[in-house]
Amino acid sequence: NAGVTQTPKFRILKIGQSMTLQCTQDMNHNYMYWYRQDPGMGLKLIYYSVGAGITDKGEVPNGYNVSRSTTEDFPLRLELAAPSQTSVYFCASSYDRDSNQPQHFGDGTRLSIL
Amino acid sequence: AQTVTQSQPEMSVQEAETVTLSCTYDTSESDYYLFWYKQPPSRQMILVIRQEAYKQQNATENRFSVNFQKAAKSFSLKISDSQLGDAAMYFCAYRRGGGATNKLIFGTGTLLAVQP
């Protein structure tokens, strides 16, 4: 009963470094999402995917890249880490066709850029 | 563009009492869904309750209920018989319907403290 699994849970990066945040789900959901949550704020959508091989930008995509080679996995890549990307990152998934279905969230990754 | 506003950054309630968290939203769509998510200190995002815009009846889930006022674009959450475990950040969220891409738009959250 894993649901949405994110790794790592915490990470500290230096400015200019790159890294990939991993996300995998075992619910056979077609839709997957990446959000960031800045202190005292709600979640903002970075990228989303409606199925394997299909991705699209959300509200705040700059500085990030994604790929979706399988239904299960939706990694988020930071190429040149900047202090403005210090945030908590959440991956989520949902069943596609019914907007009534809730999104299932991972436990988040706390990322600090120093 | 759709927006979600939570005007109460923090709220406090005594254990066993009732509290209402406010949420307003702005949209020109007629088909949409509204959600309340709970985020405890563990950071998990937990769905509390959902409401379909086409339903007039207010949603209820045990001690949680909503007051959905479609004309006023208001979607408040009422927590009855508050428990210590209810202490968390609560987010109101909106999603457009009609086969859309299920993007959630979140408010800025209300931090609820429960006093013993």
Characterise the protein shown here.
The complex is a heterodimer of chains A (114) and B (116). With 114 residues, chain A is mainly beta. Chain A is 0% helix and 49% strand. Chain A has no helices and eleven strands. Chain A has strands at 4-7, 10-13, 19-25, 31-37, 43-51, 54-57, 64-66, 76-78, 87-94, 104-105, 109-113. In chain A, the strands form two sheets. In chain A, strands 2, 4, 5, 6, 9, 10 and 11 form a seven-stranded mixed beta sheet that branches. In chain A, strands 1-3-8-7 form a four-stranded antiparallel beta sheet, with no helix packed on it. Chain B is mostly beta strands and 116 residues long. Chain B has strands at residues 3-5, 10-14, 19-21, 24-26, 32-39, 46-52, 60-61, 64-69, 74-79, 88-96, 104-106, 110-115. In chain B, strands 2, 5, 6, 10, 11 and 12 form a six-stranded mixed beta sheet that branches. A four-stranded antiparallel beta sheet of chain B has the order 3-9-8-7, with no helix packed on it. Chain B has a two-stranded antiparallel sheet with strand order 1-4. In chain B, 34% of the residues are buried. The model of chain B has no long low-confidence stretch (mean pLDDT 92).
Poorly predicted spans of chain B: none
Termini separation of chain A comes to 36 Å
Kindly name the structural category of chain B.
mainly beta
- What structural class do you assign from the helix and strand content of chain A? mainly beta
Instruction: Please state the oligomeric state of the protein chains shown.
Output: heterodimer
Unreliable stretches of chain A: none
Number of strands of chain A: 11
**Total of helices of chain B:** 0
The SSE string of chain A, one letter per element, is: EEEEEEEEEEE
Number of strands of chain B: 12
Tell me the series of helices and strands of chain B, N- to C-terminal.
EEEEEEEEEEEE
Largest sheet of chain B: 6 strands, mixed
